[in-house]
Amino acid sequence: MSEKRAQRFNELIKKELGKIVFEFLDVKPGILVTITRVLTHSNLFTATIFVSAYPSSEAKKILDKLNRSIYKIQQLLNKKMEVRPVPKIRFVYDKNPEEAAAIEKLLNEIEK
């Protein structure tokens, strides 16, 4: 699969999963859950979904809830996607936003 096509495919999965997770995941007010990126493996049979949560103290609970419901989420994704095969999804916590915020904070402190 070409790189451009893979990017479009990943964005499509990200968009559809974003809708599904928003409707499916019932989170308390003040908690933000974001699908940051999708990495579909070259065989197109598996996709790693990177999830970010704010505040980060809730991340483990949210990831556990997603992984417990992965079968139902996969079914909803299969219905929404018009391509075959739809990759099997796997949720992973994405630490990049937290790391970026920490680096930005350090840079601001150095600047002062």
Briefly say what this structure is:
With 112 residues, this protein is an alpha+beta fold. It has helices spanning 3-24, 59-68, 70-80, 96-111; strands at 32-40, 46-54, 88-93.
Blueprint of the fold:
Layout: H1 3-24, E1 32-40, E2 46-54, H2 59-68, H3 70-80, E3 88-93, H4 96-111
Parallel strand pairs: 2-3
Antiparallel strand pairs: 1-2
Which characteristics define this entry?
single chain, 112 residues, alpha+beta, GMP Synthetase, Chain A, domain 3, three-stranded mixed β-sheet, 3 strands, 53% helix
The count of helical stretches stands at 4
- Helix-and-strand structural type: alpha+beta
The CATH architecture name reads 2-Layer Sandwich
Kindly report the average pLDDT value. Answer: 84
State the end-to-end distance. 48 Å
Number of domains: 1
CATH topology: GMP Synthetase, Chain A, domain 3
Characterize the largest beta sheet: strand count, sense, and whether it forms a barrel: 3 strands, mixed
Q: What oligomerization state is this entry in?
A: single chain
Strand content: 15-25%
Radius of gyration: 16 Å
Structural shape:
globular
**What is the CATH C-level name?**
Alpha Beta
Helix content: 40-55%
Please provide the ordered H/E string of secondary-structure elements. Answer: HEEHHEH
Tally of extended strands? 3
Classified in CATH, the superfamily is K homology (KH) domain
Low-confidence stretches: none
Q: Taking strands numbered 1, 2, ... along the chain, how are they ordered across the largest sheet?
A: 1-2-3
